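dumping this here so i dont lose it
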């Protein structure tokens, strides 16, 4: 089972010239899985929080396309905050990690690239259920 330290910021390829920048994300090349689902959060009111769940199997790459926000990652033992504000960087969130998103700046856009299609069965939506799930595999801590 993964820990928060297994979730890391990844530098994405950035091609720069005088006309601007381009960043490309390709399945199993710049991202370690096939992207099966793409969605983005935007127009999040200042002071609002999102997330508040974990996944049994799903992996995600998170990119701040515009603005900034903070992810709070939790493995049931340790917590880690990750600030995102650079569209050439992605946060790789591994399975079994609780996540919350806060401190959205005005105009922020949070892009999520997911390793699987939506499946309600993959969600851990109750924090106590999440802690029990993590406790069942304490051999990894």
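and the seq i came up w/
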């Amino acid at each position: 089972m993964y820990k928060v330290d297994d979730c890391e910021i990844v530098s994405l390829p950035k091609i720069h010239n005088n006309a601007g920048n381009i960043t490309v994300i390709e399945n199993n090349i710049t991202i370690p899985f096939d992207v099966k689902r793409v969605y983005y959060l935007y127009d999040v009111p200042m002071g609002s929080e999102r997330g508040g769940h974990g996944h049994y199997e799903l992996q995600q790459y998170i990119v701040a396309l515009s603005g900034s926000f903070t992810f709070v990652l939790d493995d049931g033992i340790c917590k880690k905050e990750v600030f995102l504000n650079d569209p050439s960087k992605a946060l790789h969130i591994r399975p079994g990690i609780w996540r919350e998103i806060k401190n959205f700046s005005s105009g922020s856009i949070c892009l999520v690239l997911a390793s699987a299609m939506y499946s309600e069965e993959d969600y851990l939506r109750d924090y106590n259920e999440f802690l029990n799930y993590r406790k069942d595999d304490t051999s990894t801590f």
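The radius of gyration is 15 Å.
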